[in-house]
Amino acid sequence: MLNSSFPVFDGHNDVLLRLRRGGQKDPVAAFLNGEDAGHIDLPRARKGGLAGGLCAIYVPSPSMTKDANGDFPTPAQPDALNETLAMARLLFDIEKRSEGGVTVCRTAADIRRSIETGSFAAVFHIEGAEAVAGDLDALYILHQAGLRTLGPVWSRPNAFAYGVPFRFPSTPDIGPGLSEAGKDLIRACNDLKIMVDLSHMNEKGFWEIAELSKAPLVASHSNVHALCPHSRNLTDRQLDAIRDTQGLVGINFGVLFLRDDGVKDPATGIDQLVRHVAYIAERIGIDRVALGSDFDGTTIPAEMKDAAGLPKLVEALKAHGFNDEELAKITHLNWIDVLDRTWAA
Ligand SMILES: [Zn+2]
């Protein structure tokens, strides 16, 4: 099988939201049997060598009309918790009905075993912690259920922090840092060994977490600000801080975050992705860069099309000059390593 030595374990997908909102009669069957929508389902994952990744639970804003401050409105805690439980149930239903085809992984050993046996390795991730606002009880229960990584914010304010708004060109230094509740959340994540995801944090929040957290700094789906000055991307100083904690950056395939002109054009080439991978490898090391597709959550290069197109990226990385050992790190080993160190610490 093409590129079978480079299974891709990926830092971010939104397939659970797509299935939750997609209107399929049986969303579990749509995932397991495949369909002609979005970027990921099990047959296309297998075809493209997508071995697994962080499956985000993201609760959209109640409206996409910005409020008086220019921010997307934040979902209320009970609504966010209900939606989170619905999408988590979907994930566990997929695992159950897959009869071994999908595994919800709680340890690095689970991920390694799943990749070896060809079972899609899903990690339960939350993007935007509205569901656990308040006393954090839900955080402890969701962790018991399998939650292993969490981003405190999406690109909007919540009780914990201020997610960086989408702006181009713009520094990520927009808005205030963590609230006291936000600091408690980071400490609780450290205690539970839940990975804290820095993608969507603004710059103040990023540096406060860098100061407070004991875990490696990880941005699951963000790119290089020096190459594409979008507010969602990481400055060189932020990249250096990630290096200093032996953290990781997962490269986002979203065309919006790739080009130096910030144009949202699906005709953007896969070479633009390679540019960001190469920059990070060059600046902070080959062990610090991986993939964070944002499949089912953003507009990706049309030439990739969907998860089945991943071998094209592996080929482009190879053509750029990455050797087999480096390709294995970029495609899966670096993710497994940083999760292992975060979860086992
Ligand atoms: Zn995101």
Task: Provide a short characterization of the protein structure.
This protein is of the alpha/beta class and 345 residues long.
Question: Mind telling me the CATH class?
Answer: Alpha Beta
Instruction: Tell me the number of strands.
Output: 9
Count of DSSP helices? 12
Bound ligands, named by name, code or SMILES: zinc ion
CATH fold-level label: TIM Barrel
Biggest sheet architecture: 6 strands, parallel
Q: What is the quaternary state of this protein?
A: single chain
Calculate the terminal CA-CA distance, rounded to whole Å.
36 Å
What is the overall silhouette? globular
* Succession of helices and strands: EHHHEHEHEHEHEHEHEHEHH
The low-confidence parts are: none
CATH architecture: Alpha-Beta Barrel
What is the topology?
Blueprint: E1 8-13, H1 15-21, H2 27-33, H3 42-48, E2 50-57, H4 77-97, E3 102-104, H5 108-117, E4 120-127, H6 137-145, E5 147-151, H7 180-192, E6 195-196, H8 203-212, E7 218-219, H9 236-244, E8 248-251, H10 271-284, E9 289-291, H11 310-320, H12 324-344
Parallel strand pairs: 1-2, 2-4, 3-4, 4-5, 5-6, 7-8, 8-9
Helix pairs in contact: 1-4, 2-4, 5-12, 10-11
The site of zinc ion has 5 residues, from loops.
Q: What does it look like?
A:
40% of the residues lie in helices and 12% in strands. With 345 residues, the chain is an alpha/beta fold. It has a single domain, classed as TIM Barrel (Alpha-Beta Barrel). Strands 1, 2, 3, 4, 5 and 6 form a six-stranded parallel sheet that branches. A three-stranded parallel sheet has the order 7-8-9. Helix 5 links the parallel strand 3 and strand 4. The chain is globular, with a radius of gyration of 18 Å. The relative contact order is 0.14. The mean pLDDT is 97. The site of zinc ion has 5 residues, from loops.
